[in-house]
């Protein structure tokens, strides 16, 4: 970015989703069957940027007002509502797939990261929904909820995969194994804890770090670090049976775990694997240690380095926090499944678009020699507060005139049915006389 002008921001965003691409995808997905009064690009941008506004604007009526305020183009509510279809949800998904390949915030790699092809954080979060959304089954009766699953590239600061399922789908089933794991380091939440998964990552030449579950309690086969004096021997012990008696600064041991392989010829077979468990002293932890299980080699990664690596997983936790606290993910005023899907994907697109601008600001600051930082939540709050102005700039780039504020206020504030207003006034009089 050469300057900080409105035109530069507008050019950046419209190049992220080129007009011809949006129009071609809209026709391919039958969002647009023939040329009509509404330019499909602006409803798309209204969802992406308008989602950031939140509150009342999160309703379809709110999106319509945001659209009218940006384009100076009035539209009947029913006409706008009719565009919220399954086909629109598919179009937004296509745009998201395109965007996640384009946007990445520069990240300074620490030397310990450089030997990995990628560092990947994997996590999921639950979003509560209107209880009448039966397609999104919840774990409790008379409720509904969805699971949003993200695979996040820590080194490039970009979402590389996402899934939306109902709440009852366990997050661990969404993690696919295979040759794509090779050379990558995976930082896994305990929701993805599974010995068979760890074995498959290792067998596909990948690496992982996960917090150790107390329920797993593996047996120590070898101590990888010697301790002077009368240190408590750990070989042959289950790690959680003895950890409460230890006072050493670190734990570094090899353990053997058992797990079931996939069914083959109708038979389930058991297998074992040698993995590494490390612990870092932490008085605030339940047992005095933060324990991790990994396949990273002992001679290359110390317990402290593994603990530091795992903290990078917080980047995806912060993404969820940003979506929920700054963009109010989950505050959906609808009982229709496809509209929920539209808004969840719009939320992810909002995140991608805001990151696209942030990337340019980071590069601009570096070029100017400005040693500043852009805290993610401060950036999200700024983007959200100025979202309507951003939408207006995009509309201007498409040739829409600046809206007449007075006409918009008059049109939106007046009662569409005078008879209804009279009835309300009559009811008010009756209540006063009573």
UniProtKB/TrEMBL annotation:
Residue ranges annotated for the Transposase IS4-like domain, each copy included: 115-352
Keywords linked to the UniProt accession: DNA recombination, DNA-binding, Plasmid, Transposition
Record-level Gene Ontology MF annotations: DNA binding; transposase activity
InterPro entries, sorted: RNaseH-like_sf, Transpos_IS4, Transposase_11
Record GO biological process: DNA transposition
Residue ranges that the Swiss-Prot or TrEMBL entry lists as coiled coil: none
Domain of life of the organism encoding this protein: Archaea
Pfam family, one: DDE_Tnp_1
Annotated SUPFAM superfamilies: Ribonuclease H-like
Family note: Belongs to the transposase 11 family.
Protein name in UniProt: IS4 family transposase
């Amino acid at each position: 970015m050469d300057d900080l002008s409105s035109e530069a921001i507008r050019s950046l965003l419209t190049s992220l989703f080129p007009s011809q691409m949006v129009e071609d995808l809209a026709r391919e997905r039958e969002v647009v069957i023939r040329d009509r009064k509404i330019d499909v690009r602006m409803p798309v941008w209204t969802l992406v940027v308008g989602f950031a506004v939140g509150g009342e604007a999160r309703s379809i009526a709110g999106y319509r007002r945001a659209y009218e305020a940006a384009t100076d183009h009035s539209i009947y509510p029913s006409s706008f509502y009719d565009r919220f279809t399954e086909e629109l949800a598919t179009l937004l998904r296509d745009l998201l797939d395109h965007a996640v390949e384009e946007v990445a915030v520069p990240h300074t790699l620490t030397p310990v990261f450089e030997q990995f092809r990628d560092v990947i954080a994997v996590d999921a979060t639950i979003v509560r929904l209107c209880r009448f959304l039966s397609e999104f089954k919840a774990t409790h009766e008379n409720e509904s909820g969805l699971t949003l699953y993200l695979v996040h590239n820590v080194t490039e600061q970009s979402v590389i995969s996402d899934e939306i399922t109902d709440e009852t789908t366990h997050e661990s089933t969404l993690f696919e194994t295979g040759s794509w794991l090779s050379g990558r380091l995976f930082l896994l939440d305990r929701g993805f804890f599974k010995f068979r998964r760890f074995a498959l990552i290792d067998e596909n030449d990948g690496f992982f770090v996960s917090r150790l579950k107390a329920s797993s309690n593996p047996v120590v086969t070898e101590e990888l670090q010697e301790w002077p004096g009368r240190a408590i021997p750990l070989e042959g012990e289950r790690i959680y049976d003895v950890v409460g008696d230890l006072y050493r600064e670190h734990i570094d041991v090899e353990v053997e775990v058992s797990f079931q392989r996939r069914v083959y010829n109708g038979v389930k077979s058991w297998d074992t694997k040698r993995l590494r468990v490390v612990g870092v002293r932490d008085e605030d932890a339940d047992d005095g240690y933060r324990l991790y299980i990994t396949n990273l080699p002992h001679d290359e990664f110390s317990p402290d380095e593994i603990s530091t690596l795992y903290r990078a997983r917080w980047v995806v936790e912060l993404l969820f926090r940003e979506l929920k606290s700054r963009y109010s993910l989950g505050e959906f005023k609808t009982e229709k499944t496809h509209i929920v899907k539209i808004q969840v994907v719009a939320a992810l697109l909002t995140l991608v678009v805001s990151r696209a601008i942030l990337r340019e600001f980071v590069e601009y600051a570096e070029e100017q020699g400005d040693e500043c930082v852009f805290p993610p939540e401060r950036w999200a709050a700024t983007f959200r507060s100025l979202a309507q102005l951003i939408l207006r700039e995009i509309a201007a780039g498409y040739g829409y005139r600046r809206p007449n504020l007075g006409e918009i206020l008059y049109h939106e504030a007046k009662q569409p049915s005078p008879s209804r207003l009279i009835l309300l006034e009559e009811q008010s009089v009756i209540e006063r006389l009573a």
